[in-house]
Amino acid sequence: MEKSTKLSANWYRAFYTLWAGCFITGMGYSMTMPFISLFIADLGNYSKLEISLYSGLAFAMTFVAQAIVSPYWGNLADRKGRKLMCMRASGVMALTITLTGFAPNAIYIVIMRFIQGSFSGYINNATALMASETPHNKSGWVMSQMMTAGTAGNLIGPLLGGALSSYFGNLLGGAWGYRIPFFITGALMFITFLGTTFLVHEDFTPISREEMKPMKEIMADLPNIKLIIGMFITTLIVQASTLSIDPIVSLYVKSMMPGAKNVAFIAGIVAATPGLGTLIAASKIGHKMDEVGPLKVLRIGLIVGFVLFVPMALTNSPWILAGLRFLLGMASAGMMPAAQAVLTLNTPAESFGRIFSYNQSFQAFGAMAGSMIGSTISGVFDYAAVFWITGLTLLINFIIVMALGQSKK
Length: 409
Hints:
By secondary structure, the protein is mainly α. Helix content is 80%, strand content 0%. It has a single domain, classed as MFS general substrate transporter like domains (Growth Hormone, Chain: A), CATH 1.20.1250.20. This is Permease of the major facilitator superfamily.
């Protein structure tokens, strides 16, 4: 039965708190990860291929862990609620991110990233919590706003991380410029943990393990199982297309600017521009999803994304790259939120945790595949090849979504 369209004060407080938590999570991630390859390069005498591979592993290990444990956390979320999952994710991330700042070598970073991934998932669980608490006629807007939180953080993070890395690198020397953002991120995640604990109320009644439907029965009862699986695949491909670029974006910018001293700051700008595009477009696209349906918006986002990756592979200017990534960010506002809106509209409330956890597993597999493929291709061939392959994956995704046909939702 659909929820009432009247929203309570508790709903708004939870929404703003979780939005802020997703913003901090996105900002903390982008303050540190776009510069992880530069951090690793300062920790040892590594070759170009070693730096690319270690950077890819540092990205991928988090998502390997997520893919393995997400179904377990999803099962627990359906029994205990999504708020507890948000508390778990933010609390452990506060600890592991802080400890990563003390890294003595690349292997240490890879290990800490694996531990972090085993307990992560704040944005996914916050999104699932809001999806379960929101009337269906507002789901498109809410999903886009939850994505806006992470992307707004992704917008601020690289700029702040690049500025902090440059400032503390000049002040303290060596790798310390890349360590400080980890310490700041850890403190912010602890604040997120406190806010989620004390300000978020979830309308949820815990149920026992025995009362839960088996996953096989849930999947059999879904009104459109092909559509759900199609959205899982879409989540995987879209995430792979995003993460194939992230591990090498700072190195790509560096290759365009040999000898420049402000590479970290400019790489931060290039890394941030997709977030700006998404931030500007997300609200309008979210309302459009509620009008015309998320599947139609998803198709447009995928084909526009494919077209934009072609000139990215051809440019030699970091500023043109930044502009194209800005447009890609606008297209991205019609990809992942649309897929999540489709899941929201086609999933029973009692199964949100497990369906979204499976979606998170596909997202993690996509991130793992994207980061490793991007790092390997750039190490063996060149950075431009990553953009060609990434664009092709979005074209494949578009064909898959077209094959699903029109959805009633």
